[in-house]
Automatic annotation (TrEMBL):
Pfam family, one: ThuA
Residue stretches making up the ThuA-like domain: 7-216
Keyword list, A-Z: Glutamine amidotransferase
Name this protein carries in UniProt: Type 1 glutamine amidotransferase
Species this chain originates from: Streptomyces iranensis
């Protein structure tokens, strides 16, 4: 169900270290400029309202280290399966709930990151360089956290990051960093980038995140 004005719901909270309000607020004007009415919720109880989720065109999730109930997870997955978009970045979408159904929906789960911030690169996958989320973008570097994740083989990886060999790993590890997937009639966009607000000052990070929100929306 859609109207001439699309509806976006920003669900934010959990651990304050990921700046859920500051960073999600920075994307609200962009969504409004692209025809969305934007509502925010700082309570996961919004996922209890299956009807509200079903009539929302885009859910932007920005919630780290929370607890979702089985019913809430099922409602979210059902809404996406019916056409609601789901999008998010960093821990707000991959380091949030210990729920298998939720991780099947998003296609990935945070495992670890090296201590502190480090300089590291992100590479656009050549075969996906024409995808609307990353079209025209070059590889880029960032000084921030670098996420090691476990992912579903059915995701469409748009960009990767490489971990060098270390005392535990005898060869480099190429890790999915930005991906999309479909779930029934819905679309999901995930970026592992975005630990701190100034990560989004990097033009490529801002651009691919904005595009990912639009791509995921119904």
């Amino acid at each position: 169900m859609t109207t001439d004005t699309r509806r976006a719901l920003v669900v934010r909270g959990g651990w304050d270290g990921h700046h859920p309000v500051t960073i999600s607020d920075s994307f609200v004007p962009y969504l409004e400029d692209h025809g969305f009415t934007v509502e925010t919720s700082e309570d996961l109880a919004v996922y209890d309202d299956a009807e509200r989720l079903a009539t929302t065109d885009l859910i932007v999730q920005c919630w780290t280290m929370g607890t979702i109930t089985r019913e809430q997870s099922a409602n979210l997955a059902a809404a996406v399966r019916a056409g609601t978009g789901l999008a998010g970045w960093h821990g707000g979408i991959v380091d949030c709930f210990h729920d298998h159904g939720y991780h099947l929906l998003t296609g990935g789960k945070f495992v670890m990151h090296p201590p502190g911030y480090l300089d590291h690169g992100y590479e656009i996958v050549p075969e996906r360089a024409g995808h609307p989320v990353v079209a025209g973008l070059d590889d880029f570097t960032l000084h921030s956290e670098q996420y090691w994740v476990l992912t579903d083989p059915h995701i469409d990886v748009l960009a990767t990051t490489t971990f060098p060999p270390d005392e535990l790993h005898d060869r480099p590890a190429v890790m999915p960093a930005v991906w999309t997937r479909t779930w029934g009639r819905g679309r999901v966009f995930v970026s592992t980038i975005g630990h701190k607000p100034d990560d989004f000052d990097v033009p490529e990070v801002r651009t691919l995140t904005e595009r990912g929100l639009l791509w995921a929306s119904r």
